[in-house]
Amino acid sequence: MSSFEIGLYSFPALLFLIFARVPIGLAMFATGFVGLSLIQGGPDIALAKMKGEVFTTFSSYSLSIIPMFLLMGHFATLGGMSQALFKAAEGWLGHRKGGVAMASVGACAGFGAICGSSLATAATMSRVALPEMRRYGYSGGFSTATLAAGGTLGILIPPSVVLVIYAILTEQNIAKLFVAAFIPGILAALGYVAVISIYVRVNPDTAGVRPRVPYGQRLMDLFAIWPVLIVFVAVVGGIYGGIFTPTEGAAVGALGTGIIAYFNGGLNKSALFESFEVTSKATAMIFFIVLGAAFYNGFLALSQVPQEIAAYVVEQGFSPWMVLAIILVFYLLLGCFMDSLSMILLTIPIFWPVMQELDFGMVSMAQLHAAKAQQALAAGVDIPADMLTSIKAALADGAELTREQIKSLDIRGVSKGVLNRVNDEQTAIWFGILVLIVVEVGLITPPVGMNLFVINSMDRQTPITETYKAVLYFVASDLLRVLLLVAFPIITLMFIPII
Amino acid sequence: MHRFFLSFSKVMALLGGLVLTILILLIVTSILGRTLNSLLHTGFAQMILGGTAQSLIDMGLGPVNGDYELVEAGIAFSIFAFLPLTQISGAHANVDIFTNGLSDRKQAILKAVIEILFAGVLVAIAVQLNQGMWDKMDRGQTTFLLQFPVWWAYGFSLIGAASAAIVGVYVAFARVMHVVTGTVTIIDEGADH
């Protein structure tokens, strides 16, 4: 068997192991190990790889962000931030039709801004919001569906553990991905609020009425969420503003939420120990998948399969948009039974080389020239005065610069290579956000979406079929949003500078 | 016996958590030092504090030297130390919808087989890490900034890796006992993240 064949046959072998309930990280590790041994004609090299590679995978500065974000999310819960967020949102929205559900979505979005995981957000907010929805006569299925969907905001709104992994896999800038996720995250929250508003009009008996809260109280409740704002601005703002690295941001966030939790009386010794245990389990689980993926992907790269697949797709001349559509549908299906992180670690090393080969025309030469020209003008390049006015006019019109203008700005260095690099980055960011959304949709798609099970298990009186029925509205809004983001990449990329 | 291994795993998780906390404090200290250092370099600080600004800088007020290396060494220990609790709690992510239909006995056998494989991998990881540590020691490799021997970091991680291997073997043993005698000791949590 050639290395390529071994690589190809490893897919069904790996899927079989995963579907046979072998932990995903272990399945990838074992398949990678066996595959590598087959290619090398013996296990010696694979064993030698384990001498250093397990250690280097775990001793990663950029991945140390993950336990810190997990700890931060747990401290945020202990500090009562989920209650504060829900109370503030309920004050402003609760009295509307379906308002308590809208408040839950709002609070999920807020909690997502300080928590990087979707199930943690859904579970934390459920503890606060489910009893309130029950109290005001919201139907069981509608309530659980709202929270399952709202939970996905935890991962979409930065910080996000999955985006950290994606950034490392595709060698992209974490800060830029966080910023790119922001508008789609807000759109998701608004979409869910719209869904709730439609749902309660179609099914008027599913939601009761909650009395208005006086404005004074509302303002006080709103003021009470200041810790969330401070932590979010410090962490995400600090990372984006280049004040500190993502890992440093996570450390600041973990310490900040820890201090807040301590002063709110939520962090005593036993709570701290419990935080360590919860963080420990989630961290080791994630890192074992990362380790398995490192081994499996190392083997795959050696087998040349990802490169061959990418070359094949280009050779066939498929339309880039069709390839993208197939990939996204594949994620939707896979998301029905796999968690988002495993999916990304398993598939991005195969799909990303394909995406890199496809031209989505994210940035044209003219746009790149315009951006470089802006930069040059801002830096005060010496240009003849008559030329300056015409260049400014050309830039303002969004028209292409003439050859002379480019020459006088001294931006001839903008080559095809630079353009490709820029295109790669823009495509990577856009694709990453799309993948993030579709894998999350998988988590709330009946019949086996994982968020649905977790939330439903917290509300034993509600049959899961009720949750299924209600969540379809939210899935529809998600799919609509995916179409919107595919059609208009600018929504995702608006705050990502070309250069 | 189960209680012993569970407590042991929890102690390891707490140690990992403590190291993680120390790293967080170290990073924040480094950021503060760096910020203060650049503030003291500004003309304003020089004007207000005069010579004090320079002497504070001379005293070493600045980022923690080699913080990056310490984080890399420490985080590896934490993650290895987190493994035993994850192992004994059955908290690894898996896909169980295709196997839920199997009879209880078949599921128990399947879990025992998987856990034996897992234990084997964890033991192999610990053994190879030990090898790697000796390699580093022989070569006398040190880190770039702090110049501490790289094998120290390997050694600390080895404590965690060995614990994970021991707990992994115990979990496999308990799963096999479940098949043989029917006593359930390990309760799965499933993935929560």
Question: What does this protein look like?
Answer:
The complex is a heterodimer of chains A (499) and B (193). Chain A contains 25 helices and no strands. Chain A has 499 residues and is mainly α. In chain A, helix 2 packs parallel to helix 15. The longest helix of chain A has 35 residues. Chain B is mostly helical and 193 residues long. Chain B has six helices and no strands. The longest helix of chain B is centred in the first third of the chain and has 40 residues. The model of chain B has no long low-confidence stretch (mean pLDDT 89). At the A-B interface, helix 2, helix 3, helix 4, helix 7 and helix 14 of A face helix 1, helix 4, helix 5 and helix 6 of B.
Question: Poorly predicted ranges of chain B (pLDDT <50, ≥5 residues)?
Answer: none
Q: Point out poorly predicted stretches of chain A.
A: none
Oligomer: heterodimer
Percent of residues in helices of chain A comes to over 70%
Q: Which term fits the overall shape of chain B?
A: elongated
The share of residues in extended strands of chain B comes to under 5%
**Secondary structure tally, helices of chain A:** 25
Give the structural class of chain B. mainly alpha
Helix and strand topology:
The complex is a heterodimer of chains A (499) and B (193).
Chain A lengths: L2 H17 L4 H17 L3 H15 L6 H14 L2 H13 L5 H14 L5 H18 L4 H12 L1 H4 L4 H10 L3 H29 L12 H9 L2 H15 L5 H18 L5 H35 L1 H12 L3 H15 L5 H18 L7 H14 L6 H13 L5 H7 L6 H28 L6 H8 L6 H24 L1 H5 L6
Helix pairs in contact in A: 1-2, 1-15, 2-3, 2-15, 4-14, 4-15, 5-6, 5-12, 6-7, 6-8, 6-11, 7-8, 8-23, 8-24, 10-18, 10-22, 11-22, 11-24, 13-14, 15-18, 16-18, 17-22, 18-22, 22-24
Chain B lengths: L1 H40 L1 H7 L1 H8 L8 H22 L15 H36 L10 H32 L12
Helix pairs in contact in B: 1-4, 4-6, 5-6
